[in-house]
Specification:
binds NADP nicotinamide-adenine-dinucleotide phosphate, 9 helices, alpha/beta, Rossmann fold, Quinone Oxidoreductase, Chain A, domain 1, about 300 residues
């Protein structure tokens, strides 16, 4: 099968097209023909190995000391099941699914991927395309995990910092869905569409201290890892909480993917797509995402829908 591989850390040019073995499903696995994947901020970091100094050693052990252990990146996908292992009961050939691969060695920059049926995989939302569905599992489930962990309540004041990113655009929609009063923080060109996602207020972070008119906030959620708790302390209520996406909110859960599917099908939330590229254009897409200003998600079409 065709895949985009990298054999060394470096610039987007280390990514190249290669012919690799097509995976075969184990007894409890499904083989997915991939129609779409995405380029996440995490993919870019794993390719470039641009990590803070304190993370250097643990990240290198995880990713590969001298060279990447897993040569195919890609954290999320949408596709159709081509084959199932003999013990698989939940799915059958032809089912449309979307999935995260982050607990299963990544590998979505390829034509096929095997995943355990009990992994972070669920039936694709019926009302969106493969390209849209591929952009849900990482950003959507991350935002949902953080929001659920804080036991969000109706009427709370939530501030979503970095509201125009992948995690941020889902966080705005989910917090609004749960009944919070949402303020989105983003730059000038994103103010309009972030408001349309459901933010009651939007503040432009390029125009000085974004906290100056914020008071008594219950939660300030930094979805892009750019601010510190000390910067926002005065805008929080006495029991207010600062959340950072750089801290863990726990492991991925399949139930979160099913929850997101339900919200999408009820048209409560939707993925935001910035640009779409082909598989061969993945190095170019990495160059774009690396700039740090994508609006929502950048999608790669691996195969065209029929
Ligand atoms: N903890 C976890 O489980 C987990 C899971 C997934 C992702 N992550 C991490 O979460 C972070 C965000 O990921 P993502 O994919 O959502 O990011 P992303 O989509 O790549 O973020 C891009 C967005 O960030 C905004 N931005 C850039 N600089 C900003 C600043 N100084 N202030 C406010 N907004 C700024 C950009 O808007 P402008 O163009 O307006 O600047 C752009 O819309 C990454 O570090 C990722 O690795 C963590």
């Amino acid at each position: 099968m065709k895949a985009i591989v990298y054999e060394k850390y470096g610039t987007p040019d280390v990514l190249h097209l290669a012919e690799v073995d097509k995976p075969r499903p184990k007894k409890d696995e499904i083989l997915i023909k991939i129609y779409a994947t995405t380029i996440t901020a995490g993919d870019v970091r794993m390719r470039s190995f641009d990590v803070p100094l304190w993370q250097w050693f643990p990240a290198r052990v995880y990713l590969g000391i001298r060279k990447p252990k897993r040569q195919i990146l890609g954290m999320e996908l949408a596709g159709k099941i081509e084959e199932v292992g003999e013990e698989v009961g939940l799915y059958k050939k032809g089912d449309q699914v979307f999935a995260s691969t982050t607990s299963h060695n990544f590998g979505a920059y390829a034509e096929y991927k095997c995943l355990p049926e009990e992994g972070m995989v669920a039936p694709k939302p019926k009302n969106i395309s493969y390209n849209e569905a591929a952009a849900v599992p990482v950003g959507g489930a991350t935002a949902l995990r953080f929001i659920k962990k804080e036991n969000i309540q109706k009427g709370q004041k939530w501030v979503i910092y970095g509201a125009s990113g992948s995690v941020g655009s889902y966080a705005v929609q989910l917090a609004q869905y749960f009944g919070a009063e949402v303020t989105g923080i983003c730059s000038t060109s994103n103010l309009g569409w972030v408001k349309n996602l459901g933010a009651e207020k939007v503040i432009d972070y390029t125009q000085g201290d974004f906290t100056k008119n914020l008071k008594n906030c219950d939660v300030i959620f930094d979805t892009v890892g750019r601010i510190s708790s000390s910067q926002v302390k005065k805008a929080l209520s006495t029991n207010g909480i600062f959340l950072s996406v750089l801290k863990s909110a726990g492991n991925e859960k399949k139930e979160d993917l099913l929850y997101l599917k339900n919200l999408i099908e009820r048209e409560k939330i939707r993925p935001v797509i910035d640009r779409e590229y082909t598989m061969e254009e993945i190095p170019e897409a990495h160059k774009y995402v690396e700039k740090g200003h994508k609006k929502g998600n950048v999608v790669i079409t691996i195969a065209n829908e029929m």
